Structure formats: structure tokens, C-alpha cells
Amino acid sequence: RMPAPIRLRELIRTIRTARTQAEEREMIQKECAAIRSSFREEDNTYRCRNVAKLLYMHMLGYPAHFGQLECLKLIASQKFTDKRIGYLGAMLLLDERQDVHLLMTNCIKNDLNHSTQFVQGLALCTLGCMGSSEMCRDLAGEVEKLLKTSNSYLRKKAALCAVHVIRKVPELMEMFLPATKNLLNEKNHGVLHTSVVLLTEMCERSPDMLAHFRKLVPQLVRILKNLIMSGYSPEHDVSGISDPFLQVRILRLLRILGRNDDDSSEAMNDILAQVATNTETSKNVGNAILYETVLTIMDIKSESGLRVLAINILGRFLLNNDKNIRYVALTSLLKTVQTDHNAVQRHRSTIVDCLKDLDVSIKRRAMELSFALVNGNNIRGMMKELLYFLDSCEPEFKADCASGIFLAAEKYAPSKRWHIDTIMRVLTTAGSYVRDDAVPNLIQLITNSVEMHAYTVQRLYKAILGDYSQQPLVQVAAWCIGEYGDLLVSGQCEEEEPIQVTEDEVLDILESVLISNMSTSVTRGYALTAIMKLSTRFTCTVNRIKKVVSIYGSSIDVELQQRAVEYNALFKKYDHMRSALLERMPVMEKVTTNGPTEIVQTNGETEPAPLETKPPPSGPQPTNQANDLLDLLGGNDITPVIPTAPTSKPASAGGELLDLLGDINLTGSPATAPTPAQVPQISQSPFLLDGLSSQPLFNDIAAGIPSITAYSKNGLKIEFTFERSNTNPSVTVITIQASNSTELDMTDFVFQAAVPKTFQLQLLSPSSSVVPAFNTGTITQVIKVLNPQKQQLRMRIKLTYNHKGSAMQDLAEVNNFPPQSWQ
User: Fold this and answer.
1) Which of 45, 90, 495, 775 is the most buried (most CB within 10 A)?
2) Domain named GAE: which ranges (predicted)?
């Protein structure tokens, strides 16, 4: 016979002597082997001790599943000590995922009807901890019977077990309804507490139960009143407050019962005011009750005076030394600021003081609340505090703080000058943290503030003198100097004392931006464009500007090189058009699109405005120049220009820029750009400018061209519809419509197309990059195809998009174009 196994206490002492993880593992494995041997020998004497040791090892994180059946044997034992360890083991080692747990159902049923209350309590605890829905259905009747018993020890355990049964099988809720009638008449606090938990669960799960239990509000109010008015009771006292746990539970139940109900809210107004004024705040226990009271007041239809009282309690919390209480107060105020703005506004100075807190989570909440409090009356004072915070806060706050300041300034700015000064201050102190749209937004604001141009350009010029570290600020400054450099040099500023600046000094600044190591490629682009614009605003330094532009024609930065080459061409071939192309930008307008607000403007990087707003010159103008000009300004949606009819006149300069750019595809489509030799002669304006002609754009007969389904796979469907250009019969205009029948959106959608060399193709911008799910919307995109030889149309398409978290890509051939679309 094996020697008696060591006791649990000795095992714990032995394991604690282990100096390394490996040594501990060795001890555990040795003991597990001994326990397994004992289980195999059906040793009933020490089974309880072995399972207890196994549970300790399980708590340390070691596998103990082999003890599951031994737990069931202990539960079936008649000894209370065996049952206690058996039920504890079942709660730790078993759950409803293992079928073994169903073997306990009969044991638990027997124990629920046991003559000893402690055995019944063990069974209730186990069922309430890990009972599956099958077990709950089988044993709900026994639980309901115990809920009606007069024994308070069993009633409190039965109430908690009933909560678990309702969570597992909500349809059994009505079974417990009769038993709940007398629960709140109980004097025992344990039973009261668990009863309130049960009522809360039933109200949260069923609107019918909620309506039924609303009649209990006066009784709950009476219990709460007795608690706060009762004298000292050592049994329930916690830091001088009578049973705070029960108070908190009752307040939560009142919150649920009073929500959206005038009568219930009216019945509890007085008691909430009493709790709010009589609760001691020196200890954390009192603060917990006050916090629950505040949440209840805010959630029910309470009186306005009571809401102000609640917000004043949160204001007092802000002065507490405990960080957690301050954080809770800020979070709660943030939720209520929309409904009780004026009451929260009274605590503005305390909230702003929290911006100086050392704790980062409190700082973040205080910052969010401060922005919520900004309005037209306090904008100057609040912005002063928030700008001071922006100067001194940690880097992770700067982006959110800068965004908040921009939005608040846009909404409540008292004057345009103040608005511009505020945004410039943000760019000066946290320029590298601002969002991408900050630069175009400020440019739009400056452009629209006509009377502030001289003041703004002077401020920006001084701001970047010798400091190019804040790139967004430098970009805005370069744009403004390019636009309003003449105002800077003339010294016309009325708002502040004008500075004396020469043309050469302005160019020095822009050239130093170009060569600075801190300047990004985008910033250099702004600076070069600004220098180019100044060629029409300055008079004495045009030759210097030409020299700078020509130098960058061989820049290693392709973007900068392309700009310089194009600007060089403006100086040489198109000098007569330079002043019109580079004239001052018109006032910009914001347009609302599907996405965030966009600004219709070009940041001064290229200036198509004259093309779009000015009519073409009345005198005879060679069309090859117009064609070259389109090439010169192209870059977004313009493929090499497609001619409309040949003449005998050769294209003199039409292909030079194309030759320079080689096979770069400007649309992103795989269609190959023609070489200069392929560019035919031109006598009319290219079809890209069809919209300027007085004829109708599309042929009436186009209505008869049937549409086709070009692609249909994995829920994505592409349909082609056709129109024929009136101004040029060789041009077919294809509108694609992409739809998505799956349950998730397709994002980053890109459609690309290629045609044989005998055709020329132009792909315009799509309406969106997201194809909505369930066919709730479509993406449209226009393709223009020039087919001078009237050959049968063939096309290869490539689709890329993201769907369900993975990148998708597919190629397809489209050869079923209807004859009317190309003949």
C-alpha cells in the first residue's frame, strides 16, 4: 500500500521553496504523478486531499483536467468536507463546454433538496457559477422553490442563482416573478442586496418586467431612506456609512426604472436630493455613492435643480486629491456637457486647471471637455489656455489639440484677423503635428480674407525668417509670398507697422527654403511655384527667377524637375501667356462632397484657373499651342491629348513634352502613351475641351446602344454604358458602373484599362474609391476611347480592391462590345 500523501499545507510550503521555474515544475510533475497513481487505485480515503492539492496546482497555472471525474465522485459523497472540495473543483475545472458537467445535474438536484442548508448552499453556488442552459432548465424549479423559503441564508444564494438561470435561459424569467413579490420586504441585507441584483437583471432583459416593477419605486425609495437615516449599525457600517453596497445597487435599479418615465422619476427626486446632500464625502465609500447618485440623476427625467446639484458634486470631485475620482468626474461631465452646458460651464476654471495635471489620462479628458465648453462668448479666453497647453503638452496630445483648436476657431472666430493669428500660432508651435488638410484650409481662409492679405503675408514672412522646422507653416508662407509678394515689398500693411523688404530678400528666403535640409519635397514644390509666381509680381528680379527655375530643371527630385521644366517652357515658348496663367487666385469656395469638406483650389502648385474661367482668345490661335498647354498643366486626369481630325499641317511642338516624359502614364491606367511620332496632326480643339463647344455633347442615336456586363465575379459587377461624341464620331464615351452585392464594403477600389495601340484611351477620375455593400450605391467612372480606324473595340481591364481584410486583384478581357459603340 502507498504511503499517505502529503497535506496541502506541506505541498504549498515545498513549492514555495523552489528557487527556479524548472525546480517548481519538477516538484509539480512529481506530485501530479503521485496523485494520478492514487486516483487509479480508487483511494477514497485521500481523494479529498488530492483534489485540493490539484486545485492549488490549477491556480498556479498547471494542467489539472485529469481530476474532473474525481470531483464528481466527491460531490456524490455523503461527507460535507468531500462535497465542499468536489463542488469547488467542479467550479474551477469544469464548464459547459465539457459534457462531463451534465453528469452533475442529478447530484445538484439531490443536494438542492438536502436537509442541511450548507449543502444546499454549495449546490446553489455551483449552479450559479457554471450551470449550462440544459442544467438551468432542469433545475430552475428547485431554485424557484428555495427563493420562496423563509431561510435568509438560502434565499440570498437562490436569488443569485436565479440571476444566472435568467442569463442562460431568458424565457424562464416569468417563473421567478411570483417569488420576487416579497423579496423587498426582507429585513436581511444580504437577501435585499441579491434581490435588487435579480430585479435589475430582469428589468434590463425585459421591457415587460421593467413596466411591471415600476410600481416598486416607492418601496425602493423607502429602503434607501431607511439606510441613510438609520443610526450606526456595526454589522453594516463601512467608514461611517450604512451598507454602501446595498445603496449603490438600489441607486442603479432606480436609474433603470426612472429612465424615460416621468412618474417614477418624480417619485425618486426627493430621495436622490437627500442622498446627494447627506452623504459624507471625506471617505471613498461616500464618493462611490455620490457618483452613482449623479449617474442616476443624469439618466432619469430629473428636475433641473437636481441636475445642477449633480454637476456641482462632479465639480467638487475635480478638486479631490484622488486621480481616479478626478478622472471619473471629467468623464461624467463630458457625457453631460451637451444637455447641461451652462451648469458645466460654471466649473470651467477647475476643468482648465486639470490641463496642468501630471496624469496623462486626466489631461486628455480635460482637453476633450475644454473643447466641448468652447463657445462664442469664451472663445478668446479658452483659446489662450488651450494654446498654452499646446506649447507645453506631450507630443501625443499635440495632433488632437491642434485639430480641436482649428475646428473651434473656424466655428467661433470673433474676427478673421484673430482666426488667422490663432492658426498661425498653432502652426508655429506644433506645425509638424497638424493634419494634412490644415495647409489648404488656412490657404483658403487667407485667400477669402481680402483685406488681410498684406498683414498675413508680412506675419508669415517674419514667422519663417531663419526657421524652416515647421513644414506646414513654411508651405503656407511660401504660397502667400508667391501670391501676395508685391504687397509685402510695397509695405502696404495697415494692421501693424510695415517692414521694409526688397525683392531680393524675398527671393533669398524662398531659395533658402529650396536648399534647406529640413524642407520636404512638397515644401520645395511650394517654394519653386512661389518663385515662379513672383516673376509676374516683381519687376527687377525676373532674370534671377529665370536662373533659379532653369537650375532646378536638372533636379534629382522628379517632381521638382518637372515643375521647373514646365515653368521654363512658360518663360520661353509661352511668355505671352505667363501673366494670365500666374495671375492671383480667385476667392475659393468650400464644396460638400460625400467625404469630408474639400476645398476647390490647387494650393498654387499648378494654376488651371485661367483655363477654366477665361474664354479662349478671339484671335486665331494655333491649336498645337493649346495642346501643348494641356500637356504642360497635365498631371491628374489628362492623358496625352487625343486629336479629332487630321490635316496636312504637321504637329510642330505637340510632342516635345511627351518626349520628355517618355512612357509615364498620367492616369494610372495601363494604356501606353503614344510617342511623338504617333501624335497626329491637329486642326480642332481636342475632345477634352468638348464641353466648351456650343454643339450638344453626345449623339441622340447613342441612346440605342445596349449596355453590357463587362465583369461579374465575387459579388463585384461592372457594367458599361455607351455614348458617342457629337463633336468627334471617332470618340466613344464609356461610363462604367461598379456595384457590390456582398455584405461588406469594397475599399480602395481602382479600375484600370488598356486598349490596343490603334486606339487611344483616357480614363477620368472615379466618383469614389468605396463600392458600398448590398448594392446600396455604385462607383461611376468615365472612359473616352478614340477609334479613328473604326476597328472592333477590345479592352483588357484590371481591378484592385480590399475586401474582408484582404487585397484582391483580377484581370479580365472585354470583347463583347456592341457594334454600335465602335462602327
Assistant:
1) 90
2) 703-818
CATH of the domain at 748: 2.60.40.1230
Residues 6+ apart with CB under 8 A from 264: 214, 217, 257, 258, 300
Distance CA 213, CA 200 (A): 10
Does 519 fall in a domain?
yes
Distance of alpha carbon 587 from alpha carbon 566, whole angstroms: 26
- 766: cell is 472615379
Distances (CA, A) of 208 to 3, 161, 173: 63, 22, 11
Mean of pLDDT values over 132-151? 89
Q: How many domains does one find in the chain? A: 2
Rounded-to-integer distance, Cα 618 and Cα 607, Å: 22
How open is the CA angle 568-570-571, to the nearest 5 degrees? 65
Torsion sign over Cα 196, 199, 205, 206: negative
- Tell me: the pLDDT tens digits for 94-104? 877 767 777 78
* Joined grid coordinates for residue 719: 457594367
Which of 530, 556, 582 represents a domain boundary (last residue)? 582
The grid cell for 605 is 502648385
Q: If pLDDT is split at 50, 70 and 90, which confidence band does 739 have?
A: very high
Cβ-count burial 725-747 (b if 16+ within 10 Å, e if not): bbbbebbbbbebbbbbeeeebbe
- The three-point CA angle 197-201-206 to 5° equals 150
pLDDT band at 689 (very low <50, low <70, confident <90, very high): very low
Boundary of a domain, candidates 582, 602, 632: 582
Q: Provide the strand spans (E) within 764-804.
A: 779-786, 795-803
Please report where in the chains the cell 462632397 appears, as a residue. Answer: 593
| C-alpha span between 737 and 744 (Å, rounded) | 18
Contact yes or no for 344/311 (Cβ under 8 A): yes
Residue 737 falls inside a structural domain: yes
Q: Is 664 helix (H, G, I), strand (E, B) or coil?
A: coil
**CA-CA distance, 472 to 438, in Å (whole number)?**
8
Confidence tier at 590 by pLDDT (50, 70, 90): low
3-class state of residue 801 by DSSP: strand
Phi-psi region of 20 (alpha: psi -120 to 50; beta: other; left: phi over 0): beta
Q: What number of other Cβ atoms are within 10 A of residue 581's Cβ? A: 20
pLDDT of residue 632: 36
Cβ-Cβ contacts under 8 Å for 598 (sequence gap 6 or more): 590, 591
Look up residue 5 and give its amino acid: P
Q: What does the DSSP 8-state code read for residue 789?
A: T
Task: Identify which of 710, 703, 644, 651 has the alpha carbon closest to the alpha carbon of residue 675.
Answer: 651
Choose among 726, 752, 740, 603: nearest CA to 665: 752
Whole-model pTM: value is 0.61
Is residue 810 included in any domain, yes or no?
Answer: yes
How confident is the prediction for the chain on average, in pLDDT?
80
User: Residues 247-276: pLDDT tens digits?
Assistant: 999 999 999 998 888 888 888 888 889 888
156: its cell numbers: 440570498
Question: pLDDT band at residue 701, thresholds of 50, 70 and 90?
Answer: very low
Q: Are residues 440 and 576 in the same domain?
A: yes
Q: Is 533 inside any structural domain? A: yes
Residue position matching grid coordinates 443610526: 231
